[in-house]
Amino acid sequence: MKTLIRTGIVLGEGIIALVIALTCSIPVMFLLAPAIMALVHTLLWDVLKLDALENGFFRFLKFVILIATFVILTIVVAGPSTAMITDEFFAIDAPYTDIQIISTTGAIAMMVGAFSMSLICMESFGNRYVTVSVPIVGIGFGLLYGLLTYFLGAISAGVSSFFAWAILAFAVVGLINYIRKNKLVYADLDKDAKFQGFGIKRGGGGRKYHKTGRPIDDAMNYIAYKESKYVDLYYNNKLSLEVNVTVYTTEIEFIINGKLYNNNPNMTASQIRDVSVQVNDIMQNAQRRIMASAKRDVQTILDNDPNHYNANIGYNIVVKCGDVR
Description:
4 strands, 10 helices, 10% strand, 4-stranded mixed beta sheet, alpha+beta
């Protein structure tokens, strides 16, 4: 039910954007495109957050859909926006209102804002209610950036047009950074995961990720680092997942331990059971994710390095759930 409510809110925001565009005589897609981007993000990030879609193929497919939506919608708005940004567009006697101008000069930026916020949600938030902010952030960011490019129109339409397009570099850098960390997969957090600091703060207990220069070791260490995080539990409790990995000659062993922070000492027996079941589910989901990620990354590395000493036999990967203290 909560998923449907969130989806309905995002859909409603899209309808409001459409009404505003029609009321202010703004090209409809300038405001509607970022709202569509937000709706697709909500479907992928919230509605389709299912255990059945957690394997590598579906995570790759979800990532492709997200990028394809951004590219297609950006192309849709970029053409009309660029065509309108001419010297006549900024003339004193031009028949355009301020909102029409800044929505035109900021049309591409709105898409960049919505797409970037989608990536931030995936990396940083477990709470799916954040999804309702995506269209607001996207459109708001685009209008502010459009105001900047509007002022630059005083120099020339060419300068304004250049900066209207230049914002795409922000999305490209963000996407490259995401792929560098997560590969070509939709690597979103669990719904009960705590805020991770805009993709910067990772790891339960503040652990750090250090590279060794050995591809297999580095890939496995990064998986352990990424899966070590704080998770919110029922009744204001928290769980710190601590994942450690050891790479042997032919075996890779992950151990998932948990540290429970009981912030509600007056829980009933029923509530304690609820938390216990939730912790068990979280540990098992982490176990499945780690196994899938480790198998995928090991195979990719060995395929790209046929001379690796384990290229023919591979690695035996073991993921164990340890203690929760």
